[in-house]
Amino acid sequence: MTQQKAIDITGNNIANVNTPGYSRQRLNMEQATPVRVLNTTMSTGVVAQQKIQRFHDQFVQSQMNTENENLGRWEAQRTALEKIEVLFDEVSGYGLSTAMSGFWNSWQDLSNNPTGHVERNSVLSAGQYLTSTFNQLSKNIQNAQKDINTSINSVVTDINRMADQIAELNGKITKVEVTGHNANDYRDQRDLLVLELAKLIDIESFEDGDGNMTITVGNGKPLVERAFTWDLVTENIEGKQNVHWKDSSGNTLDITTHIQSGELKGWIEARDRVIEGYLGRLNVLAENMISEVNALHGSGYGIDDDVQRPFFVPESDGNALSIAINPEIVGNVNHIAAAGQAFTPGDNSNAIATAELQNALTMSENASTFGDFYAALVGDVGNDTRRAGLNFGHQTAMMKHLSNYREEVAGVSLDEEMVNLVQYQHAYNAAAKLITTTDELMQTLIGLVR
């Protein structure tokens, strides 16, 4: 019976050789308790230990959880930034850099013929293309942030689902192990769930004396304790989905700033710090362009009246999403202020001054031009995306290394299992032969009595 049990466990190992998270098992045998018969000690064979050994390294498992937290963070951030990098594409020739160059060049052309209707229409068209490019880029960035909100909601749903499954496994493990047996299969399932959970959010976990695992998140808030769970929910705060922990009374506490790793951290960090920073810098660029161009245009004159007008609207608090051409100019290109003085048709001084804004140090505390400022922004987007990709690659390599190490400790080796199978088979056959021999001896003895 002992050898048969060992064969069963070996067969289970072989069957689960490709099962994710499975830890190989072994039946430990020991001598049965001897007995005294006629002043002689007699052995009573072999007995299998009630608890089946599970090959498991808790330290490696803990390391894998930690590294998976970092992997989830950089994977989410890389995904988010790759989408943003596409929005700042300047290779196709349709980006904001091209729109700005076209705008400045149109003013240069107007300075060569300040009364030309074609040139004035060109300024209007270039200005409209510039503002629409600003508008669309800003809108696309904000849409990317909304997409991240959707991802955060999805991750929170997955976290709650896994927490429920872990709590259910806690109950199953306790029910089995209270009888003195090992719930090895349930423990494997729970460890795999905890590893997947760690990829979503940074956790602290520990096991009590009854085999129940307690998991906390967000600066010590319980997520799983024995068979009980606490939900995470999302709440819209100024257009952003923040993560809240809900207590047993239904009250919620914002733990967004306490999330330090996992996919949630990657999404939140990308949305609130990295992408928000890009949007802020884009708005600064738009606001400075409004300010500088309007300052010149508002001091110049068109060719049909002496009214001074801004070129861009709104004149103050404008940003990349709202920047537009003054409707008065859209309705009449003669209002474009190419001249520095009223009713001076050949005057091109204001057009020249506006064209020269292209090379003026108007950004970064008078340290860079509009073009340099935007080029730095595009460069930072590329660098941040590359950095996220490199960190993701590093964490992937770390997880692969730890997974390989875990397999060395807990994984199933088919060669080893086949050797064990043959060994237990021979032992089983030998035990069967022993029973046959004993039976023959008993029959001989009975025959003598007869």
From TrEMBL:
Residues 81-312 form the Flagellar hook-associated protein FlgK helical domain. Residues 1-22 form the Flagellar basal body rod protein N-terminal domain. The keyword Secreted applies. GO terms for biological process: bacterial-type flagellum assembly. It is found in: Bacterial flagellum; Secreted. GO terms for cellular component: bacterial-type flagellum hook; extracellular region. Pfam families: Flg_bb_rod, Flg_bbr_C, FlgK_D1. Its main location: other. Coiled coil: none annotated. InterPro entries: Flag_bb_rod_N (IPR001444), Flg_bb/hook_C_dom (IPR010930), FlgK (IPR002371), FlgK_helical (IPR053927). GO terms for molecular function: structural molecule activity. Keywords: Bacterial flagellum, Cell projection, Cilium, Flagellum, Secreted. Residues 408-448 form the Flagellar basal-body/hook protein C-terminal domain. It comes from the Bacteria. Belongs to the flagella basal body rod proteins family. PANTHER family: FLAGELLAR HOOK-ASSOCIATED PROTEIN 1. NCBIfam families: flgK_ends. This is Flagellar hook-associated protein 1.
